[in-house]
Amino acid sequence: MTLEQKLNTGITAYGAYIPRLRMSRQSIWQANAWFAPQLKGKVKGTRALANWDEDSITMSVAAARDLLGTNRSRAEIDAVLFASTTPPFADRLNAGVVSEALNLSESLSASDTGGSQCAALAGVAQAMALAKIGAREVLLTAADCRKTRAGSAQEMDYGDGAAALLLGSEKVLAEIIGEGTVTADFVDHYRETGEDIDSHWEERWVRDEGINCLVPKAINAALQSAGVDAESVDYLIFPSTFRKMAEQLSKVCGIAQESVVDNLSAQMGDAGVAQALIMLCSTLEQALPNQTIVVAGFGSGARALVLRTTEEIQSFQPVRGVAGYLALGTEDTNYTRLLAYKEQLQLDKGMRGEQDKKTALSTSWRHRRALLGLVAGRCTTAGEVHFPPSRLSYTQGAAALDTQEPYPLAERGGRILSWSAESLSSYMAPPHHYGQVDFHGGGRLLMEFTDVLAGEVNTGGDVEAVFRIKDVDDRRHYTRYFWKATPVRAAKGEV
Asked: Which of 189, 322, 367, 463 is least surrounded by Cβ atoms within 10 Å, i.e. has the fewest?
């Protein structure tokens, strides 16, 4: 690849997502102090906790929407990549669900990648390769929603989250000018197929023989590939749950310690595959033109990328970005909620929670655009919006056949017409809130409300649509998705 080719392709947009719930580490420690008093050194801050109706797919969709916004064209996206070590499906294209939720073209290419904590950085290289062979824009999403053992260091260190990058050759914000890879079967942790929780090896061995030996090789190779001196690096991104690990790497590689980027541990924890890209998004939110960024990761070897920002960096902002989502967090001190949402504590759901939730896959296929994409039908004659869409426009006094055109609702937002909250139904976050939502521009839909507490839902309140888990068929292990409503919130300090 020539230098000219390198400079023509890179990141054209970026976005992130961090769940609203932030579990207090102090609460985790207090619940486990009788068994694991040694965890007291990790009690500061909070870790992001995915709601019961979130997983790696829903968070990936949220991160992608953060970069796409309401005005950006989606017609240019020719490929979607989904990177995760916690995909909801082992044999169903997770990237395909993401694509459907975003209402992207059926003619695009979609694929999943995983198997290593470097999967997202490998996804960047794959996206670049697709762009080189003709893809106009490639959407890369990365997310992890990991389970841990109760009372473990990982329970304190981990967090849930997602990031998304759009890569192409038009209006590039950050050029990818160098790459370095080291492939080695160094096993610092592993999880066999069929298992839910990682097994870990001793920290000092991983740090000294793994990270300190392998990651500098990848970083130095990337710098050499880019023709960049270590001293000129403005930002060094290396996610790790080991304290001061990035500072050690900067010293070994000759990179100024002032360039080390905060790993966001105190606010959200480590989001696995997504963490490097979340930190990259956070860096891009504040970067200036012509700055050099090194992003490195460790897992089954190491990977590193070198990026250089352009003048376009100042022309783009995500809808919320990392800073916005961090500011929207709300602290939770209910440790048993973490256990329940991670399916490590079986709550009594009562008789109402025992119904069969079998999904009719043929019906889901026929209505996939409405269910996954929240696409309504707008009558071209009467102008009214109908959900679900159908051949018949049932406007009173003006019934018409085959006059509806697709009318996406997800990005339009709406207002609450009426609502109810009750604790009789089986629901993982009682009380169960639901009500009628009138979408801006037309369309009325009965929706569940999510990420809400008692008193946070009000008639006339503004809401936005979010892609979430509708329910899970525990007998057949099938997850069903739909859209829910959540209040539009201002970040702390905003009016």
From this structure: 189
Residue 67 has pLDDT above 90, yes or no: yes
CA angle 88, 94, 99 (to 5 degrees): 140
**In angstroms, rounded to a whole number, what is the distance separating the alpha carbons of residues 54 and 49?**
9
Torsion of CA 346, 352, 358, 363, to 10 degrees: -130
Question: In the block, which residue shows the tokens 């119904």?
Answer: 355
**H or E, element range at 9:** none
Distances (CA, A) of 42 to 39, 51, 189, 344: 6, 23, 20, 21
pTM exceeds 0.90: yes
Chain centroid to Cα 235, Å, comes to 23
In one-letter notation, the amino acid at residue 310 is T
Q: Kindly state the percentage of the chain with pLDDT values over 70.
A: 97
Query: What are residue 406's phi and psi, to 5 degrees?
Result: -60, 140
Helix, strand, or coil here: 301?
strand
Sign of CA dihedral 115, 119, 125, 127: positive
> Which of helix, strand or coil describes residue 260?
strand
Nearest to 486 by CA among 456, 455, 446: 456
Is-contact 207 242, C-beta < 8 A?
yes
Q: b/e map of 277-306 (b: 16 or more CB within 10 Å)?
A: bbbbbbbbbebeeebbbbbbbbbbbbbbbb
- Check whether 7 has a pLDDT greater than 60: no
pLDDT of the residue at 491: 63
- 231 exposed, middle or buried (CB, 10 Å; 0-12, 13-18, 19+)? exposed
Sequence-ordered alpha helix ranges (H) in 288-394: 321-327, 335-341, 361-366, 368-373
Tens of pLDDT along 201-226? 999 999 999 999 999 999 999 999 99
**pLDDT at position 299 over 80:** yes
What local confidence, expressed as pLDDT, does residue 134 receive? 86
Residue 417 CA to residue 414 CA, distance in Å, equals 9
Average pLDDT of the segment spanning 54-61: 98
Distances (CA, A) of 288 to 264, 309, 351, 475: 21, 7, 58, 52
